[in-house]
Design brief:
- Helices cover about 40% and strands about 30% of the residues.
- By secondary structure, the chain is α/β, with parallel strands linked by helices.
- It folds into two domains: about 110 residues, no CATH class; about 110 residues, no CATH class.
- The chain has a five-stranded parallel β-sheet, with no helix packed on it.
- Helix 2 crosses helix 4.
- This is Cell wall-active antibiotics response LiaF-like C-terminal domain-containing protein.
- Keywords: Membrane, Transmembrane, Transmembrane helix.
């Protein structure tokens, strides 16, 4: 119940921020500005999706903090080129600055860390990694919708049997489990979903009382279970 309350609070926070931003934007001439916003969205939404895809690829391969230096260098170089007249200032103003602002917002939202004591972790249109704490609930929910979620369950090694509900809707969920723990995968809810188990197999039959029961619900997705 506490986790649901925190999730509802986060949703209200984001809705409130969106309402404030929209209200500030529409002050003065709402009809014209709303029409301009719709025209801009209709023209640039493919580029926004490409930018989101690029951000997700970078986050999947590189920690977000590693991008700070290259982004600063790129910003300085862009300003220098505009000052020197090699790049039209209009192009930077109309395209580069809005794109940089939008991508920065996407990165900030996508890298927002979920609660460490919750039982539900989701990624929608983003990629992310999470380490499940040992004190987390015995029933966990991992979701990826048009994105990727990498969940490390190695800290749950000493816990009793843990139930993991995995949802992959055109997305990828990667679950990392200890190599010496019992794992049972239920794939009855998977449709056109690839499920792969990799890593060393225990030399002795593990104890089912301290293992993982993973229920997969997937549509055109991918689920990977990795023993480490």
């Amino acid at each position: 119940m506490a986790e649901r309350g925190r999730q509802a609070s986060r949703i209200r926070t984001w809705l409130g921020l969106a309402a404030v931003a929209a209200g500030c934007y529409l002050v003065g001439d709402p009809a014209h500005r709303a029409r301009a916003a719709l025209e801009f969205a209709a023209e640039w939404w493919p580029w926004a999706l490409l930018g989101l895809a690029a951000v997700n690829l970078l986050r999947a391969a590189i920690p977000p903090t590693s991008l700070i230096g290259p982004l600063v260098l790129a910003a300085v170089a862009t300003v220098a080129l505009v000052t020197a007249g090699d790049v039209r200032a209009h192009l930077v103003t109309v395209l580069a600055l809005p794109a940089a602002l939008a991508l920065s917002g996407v990165v900030l939202i996508g890298t927002a860390a979920p609660s460490g004591r919750g039982s539900r972790w989701s990624r929608t249109l983003t990629t992310g990694r999470v380490v499940i704490p040992a004190e987390a609930s015995a029933t966990l929910t991992l979701r990826a919708v048009l994105g990727e979620l990498q969940a490390d369950l190695t800290r749950k090694a000493a816990a009793k049997r843990t139930t993991v509900n995995v949802t992959a809707i055109v997305g990828h969920v990667r679950v990392v489990v200890p190599r010496d723990r019992w794992v049972k995968v239920n794939t009855s809810g998977a449709l056109l979903t690839r499920i792969a188990e990799t890593g060393p197999v225990p030399s002795e039959p593990p104890d089912p009382s301290t293992g993982f029961v993973i229920h997969v619900l997937g549509v055109c997705g991918s689920v990977g279970i990795v023993r480490v």
